[in-house]
Amino acid sequence: MSGSEIKRKVYLQDKPRHLAKEELLQKIKLVKEIETVPTSDALGRVTALPVLANLSMPHYHASAMDGIAVRAEDTYEAHEQRPLHLKKGEDFKYVDTGNPIPNEFNAVIMVEDLQEIDEWTIEIIAPATPWQNIRPVGEDVVCGEMILPQGHKLRPVDLGALLAGGVLDLPVVRKPKVAILPTGNELVQPGEALKPGNIVEFNGKVFASFIHEWGGEPLLGDIVGDNPDEISDAIEKAAHEADMIIINAGSSAGSKDYTYHVISDLGVVYTHGIATRPGKPVILGEVKGKPIIGVPGYPVSAYLALEWFLRPLVCSYQGIQEPKRETMRVRLGRRVVSNMGAEDFVRMNIGYVNGEFIANPLTRAAGVTMSMVRADGILVVGPDSLGLEQGEEVEIELYKSAEDIKKAILFTGSHDLSIDIISTLLKKTDGSRQINSSHVGSLAGLMAIKKGEAHVTGIHLLDPETGTYNLPYVEKYLAKEEVVVIPFLKREQGWIVAKGNPLQIKTIEDIVKMGATYVNRQRGAGTRILFDSLLKMSNFTSEHVRGYEREMFSHLSVAAEIKEKQNCVGLGVYSAAKTMNLDFIPVADEDYDIVMTKSFYDSVSGKMLLKIIQSDEFIHKVEQLGGYKVVRNIEPIF
Ligand SMILES: Nc1nc2c(c(=O)[nH]1)N[C@H]1C(S)=C(S)[C@@H](COP(=O)(O)OP(=O)(O)OC[C@H]3O[C@@H](n4cnc5c(N)ncnc54)[C@H](O)[C@@H]3O)O[C@H]1N2
Ligand code: MOO
User: Where in the numbering of this chain does the MoaB/Mog domain appear (predicted)?
Assistant: First the structure.
């Protein structure tokens, strides 16, 4: 079979996710194997049979305290008014915690309750009861008793009980082997030199790590080329070696998406396409009795699909329940739109602002891995919903602990490299606190404070009328809010251009005359407002500026775009130009200030943040970036 003979299948099913999963679990007959492993290596493994104790623990009557072993009957007369004397060797013997109790005795009196009269005599003033302070044989584990049932995932404490009960090795379920086949001509291994069009193969490592975490044994294979014969060979080999197979990418409708055809040639496809966004082009099938899951290439879709379909198989093989995540009820800070007929999985940020948990959607793009890194949880919007309104209460599955979420500082506003430095120093000061920053621009940052979605924002907004920065905007947009403005940085803005400034750009006139492509910022960004006011002062309008319509969301993404293309220019901070090894022509000095809610200003985190931005370490690190002057001895403006 060659690639050209393969027909393109351009329609996918819309099967409900739960039906697809139930069908898969029901069709596939997993053949479990058992192996014996040393108890000391068995952490995280699942018992394949009930495990019985080989020994009793303790296996002799043991003293539970330091003191003397006595016959309880000999002590009944002892009383405060009638102290009783006991003779060493005859009436008692000294014992320490854990010592065997000599046969003739049946109780232990603690050393604290004894009065030593001489080397041979002690006095007691209270009787002992039979078996007091003695750990009888089998107090912990009795020989022959079941220590653990079948299907139990072993924890550190379980290993202790097993070893105490004389179990040195035990039968566990063999870890299900999961073959991972990354496919795609464009893939290269991490670390290899990248040509345009190359994609670093990282999904495989993520899958392997998930499989490991769920108790399976990942077998991460080499990259398989986009060629049906190669894919077919790789799947056959995997079906021979592994219990389950994951094949990544090529699941959709592209000209090189062969996965569906190859699986249906080698075995059977149960599902191609589920009613979810993202994750739709999943393939579920069977080859030579082994389940095979074709997961979409986009990382977010892939990780979700793995959790929906592989994890149940791995758990079912081991005979354990699928773990469930904690959930939290939160209020939506923004509207979440959704498609009828499909479940939407929306990655969410959650913040604890002004005494309540507020959640906001992160990007919906399935190729943005950082959204999974940043997400605090995931919101599932059902197939019958057209979306959820701002302010609605919803339940979110958590990726992080509620405690961590509560302690996170939400920084929403204009991006500045100094925020990353604050982040690092904050972690160093208190490992439990962190900054969750989202770069939305200055105006959107002020709005986030107003809507109670953020604790802190960073802004640099020039008021063209007064020629001053920031305060006029705070007064206009946050007039009714209790906020504190912290004068923070003076920073240099300038033209970011290719090395050597090939178009010799110094002014807007040069940009227009040389026909350079301008890399713009999003509406509401301080840099955009600065550019627009420069534009107004020149005799040009936005129509004269090529590229004006396209928007970037940070200084660094502007610089990254210019790095790619010689004829581009953007406005941004010096440090971004320096990071990307580009040239920089200064245009203006601006004030980048911090605005925070009064309640955050008064909080422990707020005080910590203020201390950090006044520290010598912080000031030194920021000024080293170049183009910055940190304001010293801050006077907050209320
Ligand atoms: N005409 C249509 N086009 C697409 C559809 C559709 O229904 N009709 N579905 C879209 C959806 S939704 C998804 S998801 C993707 C799935 O694409 P494939 O599974 O065919 O994957 P590729 O196109 O080969 O790769 C897509 C993308 O994924 C990343 N990738 C792939 N492999 C890896 C890897 N091993 N490590 C890291 N990243 C990987 C990479 O960015 C690829 O560009 O199709 C849409 N198109
Ligand atoms: O599965 Mo695709 O992920 O909807 O982007």
Answer: 179-316
Q: Is the Cβ atom of 279 under 6 angstroms away from ligand 2? A: yes
pLDDT at 2: 42
Report the nearest-CA residue for atom 3 of ligand 2.
Answer: 278
What is the pTM (predicted TM-score) of this model? 0.83
Residues 165 and 88 placed together within one structural domain of the fold = no
What are the tens digits of pLDDT across the range 178-236?
A: 999 999 999 999 999 999 899 999 999 999 999 999 999 999 999 999 999 999 999 99
* Closest C-alpha residue for ligand 1 atom 10: 252
ipTM summary value: 0.97
201 & 293 share domain: yes
Q: What is the mean pLDDT of residues 432-455?
A: 88
Same domain, 355 and 272: no
Predicted confidence (pLDDT) at residue 409 exceeds the cutoff of 70: yes
Closest residue by CA, ligand 1 atom 39: 297
Count CA atoms within 13 Å of residue 285 on its CB side. 23
Nearest ligand 2 atom to the CA of 279 is 1
Ligand nearest to the CA of 252: 1
DSSP for 47-87? BSS-EE-SS-BSSS-EESSSEEEE-GGGGTT-BTTB-EEEE
49 and 86 belong to one structural domain: no
In a domain, 440, yes or no: no
In a domain, 189, yes or no: yes
What CATH code is carried by the domain that includes residue 347?
2.40.340.10
Residue 429 CA to residue 424 CA, distance in Å, equals: 9
Q: Residue 260 Cα, ligand 1 centroid: separation in angstroms?
A: 14
Residues 6+ apart with CB under 8 A from 30: 176, 243, 291, 313, 316, 317
CA of residue 11 to ligand 2 center, whole Å:
14
Q: In terms of domains, do 237 and 290 share one?
A: yes
**pLDDT exceeds cutoff 50 at 173:** yes
Per the structure, the count of domains in the chain is 5
